[in-house]
Amino acid sequence: EVQLVESGGGLVQPGGSLRLSCAASGFTFSSYDMHWVRQATGKGLEWVSAIGTAGDTYYPGSVKGRFTISRENAKNSLYLQMNSLRAGDTAVYYCARGAHGAIGDWGQGTLVTVSS
Amino acid sequence: QSALTQPASVSGSPGQSITISCTGTSSDVGGYNYVSWYQQHPGKAPKLMIYEVSNRPSGVPDRFSGSKSGNTASLTISGLQAEDEADYYCSSYTSSSTWVFGGGTKLTVL
Fold it and tell me: Which residues contact residue B87 at a Cβ distance below 8 angstroms, ignoring those fewer than 6 apart?
């Protein structure tokens, strides 16, 4: 069974940093692209970043230069380093496994709140 | 990259069929067959329902089907059931090597 468990969320002040982690199990982690997707309360889904099996990374303009996605295959772990956080970054952040050009399996999410 | 356009809400009675549209551009929906659909119940993580325009992951009922014409993709749910009431999101791969979601559609089963 595929399991994705996020951690590292919490309250952070504007301009601050936070590092999210995602522990993966139940599949060969190194063989899959991985994603981060976020959802503000009452709002829609927003794709945040992706990392390929070769370590290639992708971001939308809204987070490029502020967020960094990385993976550690030996630890079956995915990370999201978030810097220069803004109130608009407040959301539940989901870790997800890519497959067939889609976002297949999702974790339960971790809440990030950016507020003073 | 602008969000894909979906209707804010749709509704239908049990047993009926509904269709949710998802409109993009030639740089996303129209340019690639990497269109996917997600179902999200309140307080839950999204669930993949359709990938590559019209393929269903194992376990997804065949009442759910997907299609695409030009820059618009569609999700059709036939034989509506009460448990289908949820938010639905479309997504597409884009020419910028990114992914984009639609704004979401709230499905109400009357």
Answer: B39, B40, B41, B104, B105, B106, B107
